[in-house]
Amino acid sequence: METKRSILSTVGEQVATLLGLVTLLWAIEIADWLLFGNQLPQFLGIRPHSISGLWGILFAPFLHGNFAHLLANTLPLLTLGWLVMLRGRREWIAVSVITALCSGLGTWLFGALGSTHIGASGVVFGYFGFLLLRGYFERSLTAIAFSLLVAFLYGGIIFGVLPTSQLISWQGHLFGFLGGVLAARLLAKPRREYKDDYDL
């Protein structure tokens, strides 16, 4: 009975954390729309090769161009984020930070001069890369199963790392994905820890 309560408590904490993040993103977008005339991205987005644009590495994941942009990121952020969080909130935080920094820095270095980059999609691609490659680095049956599941459900988004449109920050996607791969390598657990693979 205690184990069941512990599992329910853990799941509740995970869901609350993710919903809290998504609520924050929506609150920021509503505030930008109501109070700032959709100008926050211009001031706080990533502006490649600009010293002042470096601040965007910290702020860009919380900003979106419009509600449609945010809506497109919300579902994968929740689903992939929760799959990452099954390993614990500390690991989810670590993966989120690593992927956001890699995505932002890569965009700042390789993005087009004069462009502005925003959105949580770099973190989404980071989650995707982490979950996809974790099975390779850990070689546990559970990790491999999750890698296959993520490949089946979200494999199609891999094309988002290609420069298919000037309106899409493929640099953020690409370096977010690579950040996820880096996180999978850095956070890979030794074989003896596989039994503690999840917080459930």
Describe this structure in words.
It is a single chain. The chain has a single domain, classed as Rhomboid-like fold. The model has no long low-confidence stretch (mean pLDDT 90). It is mainly alpha-helical and 200 residues long. The chain contains eight helices and no strands. Pfam families: Rhomboid. It comes from Leptolyngbya foveolarum. Keywords: Hydrolase, Membrane, Protease, Transmembrane, Transmembrane helix. Its main location: membrane. This is Rhomboid family intramembrane serine protease.
Question: Briefly, what is this?
Answer:
Residues 54-188 form the Peptidase S54 rhomboid domain. The chain has a single domain (2-196), classed as Up-down Bundle (Rhomboid-like fold). The chain is built from eight helices and no strands.
Low-pLDDT sequence parts: none
On the 0 to 100 scale, the average pLDDT is: 90
Helix percent reads 55-70%
Strand content: under 5%
Cα gyration radius (Å): 17 Å
Large-scale geometry: globular
Secondary structure class reads mainly alpha
Q: What is the overall number of helices?
A: 8
CATH domain class name? Mainly Alpha
**CATH architecture annotation name:** Up-down Bundle
Topology-level CATH name: Rhomboid-like fold
By DSSP, the count of extended strands is 0
The ordered H/E elements are HHHHHHHH
* The CATH homology group name: Rhomboid-like
**Number of folding domains?**
1
Please outline the helices and strands.
Layout: H1 2-35, H2 40-44, H3 56-59, H4 67-85, H5 89-110, H6 121-138, H7 141-154, H8 170-186
Helix pairs in contact: 1-4, 4-5, 4-6, 5-6, 5-8, 6-7, 6-8
